[in-house]
TrEMBL record:
One of its GO terms (biological process) is RNA catabolic process. It comes from Trapa natans. Residues 1-33 form the signal peptide. InterPro entries: Ribonuclease_T2_eukaryotic, RNase_T2-like, RNase_T2-like_sf, RNase_T2_His_AS_1. This is Uncharacterized protein. Gene3D superfamilies: Ribonuclease T2-like (3.90.730.10). GO terms for molecular function: hydrolase activity; ribonuclease T2 activity; RNA binding. It comes from the Eukaryota. It holds the Pfam family Ribonuclease_T2. GO terms for cellular component: extracellular region. Belongs to the RNase T2 family.
């Protein structure tokens, strides 16, 4: 089977903004102290490194039982076909992480020019509103509690999302795996070691990989504050209930799914994995 060709080129307008922001990030020194653009980070110490966390839609969408406009699994032919962003999270070297470092509320209007790209590359795979740092409910992107602690490096809300898109395009995990022959399939299983090696060869860092019932669900890359690859912390605390080190077997699947555009989702998942508990 010929490897699919992921459509990973950012929209032209977003590409220009991404390029400009990356240059600014490289030449503007980090700031410390209490605030950047009104973002308060004094309650928790500054983080040590970033963790770019990506989701595989073929695995994430197996949990979909009901459709809604916000669920990317229900977009028919426009449903994701590549790894998508889960978050760019500040972490500590001891395996823990900061969260909710700002008093500011999330304002979606601040990222209005990025919404098209975010819907494509950073979609939600669920329905309903997400919890926010201040105890309320908001959009899927308002749930970025950990991202609020990145302000010493990226600054404000807009630059956080723009920077995350930039890093995602730079470290194109989907293309690396597809080029290595690890393509979506409901019958094939791939050696976990081979998947790890393909990413190591491309980015010179060892990824963390989390699985659900033998299927790849998350891939995580650790990055210095200047976004160069680095090894992840020796200690790794499970985030969102997933153990990044031991949840994958020696052979893993990269399941495909067949989205339907009539408000339902028809799963094309191997019967081995259809009994996943909720």
């Amino acid at each position: 089977m010929a490897p699919p060709s992921p459509s990973m080129a950012p929209p032209s307008g977003v590409a220009l903004l991404i390029s400009v922001t990356l240059v600014l990030l490289l030449v503007i020194p980090w700031v410390n102290g209490d605030a950047v653009g009104g973002w308060n980070v004094s309650n928790q110490r500054e983080f040590d490194y970033f963790k770019l966390t990506l989701l595989w839609p073929g695995t994430a969408c197996r949990r979909t039982r009901h459709c809604c406009p916000s669920n990317a699994c229900c977009r028919g032919s426009n449903s994701p076909e590549e790894f998508t962003i889960h978050g760019l999270w500040p972490d500590y070297n001891d395996g823990t992480w900061p969260a909710c470092c700002t008093r500011a509320n999330f304002e979606e209007k601040e990222i209005s020019t990025l919404v098209g790209a975010l819907r494509k590359y950073w979609p939600s795979y669920s329905c309903g509103s997400a919890s926010t740092c201040h105890g309320g409910k908001g959009s899927f992107w308002a749930h970025e509690k950990h991202g609020t602690c990145s302000s010493p490096v990226v600054g404000d809300e807009y630059n956080y999302f723009l920077t995350t898109l930039n890093v995602y395009f730079k470290y194109n995990v989907t293309r690396v795996l597809f080029d290595a022959g690890y393509v979506p399939s409901n019958t094939e299983k791939y050696p976990l070691g081979g998947v790890i090696t393909a990413i190591q060869n491309a980015f010179h860092t060892t990824p963390e990989i989390a699985c659900s019932n033998g299927a790849v669900e998350e891939i995580r890359l650790c990055l210095y504050k200047d976004f160069r690859p680095r090894e992840c912390a020796l200690q790794s605390t499970p985030r969102h209930g997933m153990n990044s080190r031991s949840s994958c077997p020696k052979y893993v699947s990269l399941p495909a799914y067949t989205p339907r555009g009539d408000g339902k989702v028809e799963m094309s998942v191997s019967s081995t994995y259809q009994s996943e508990s909720m």
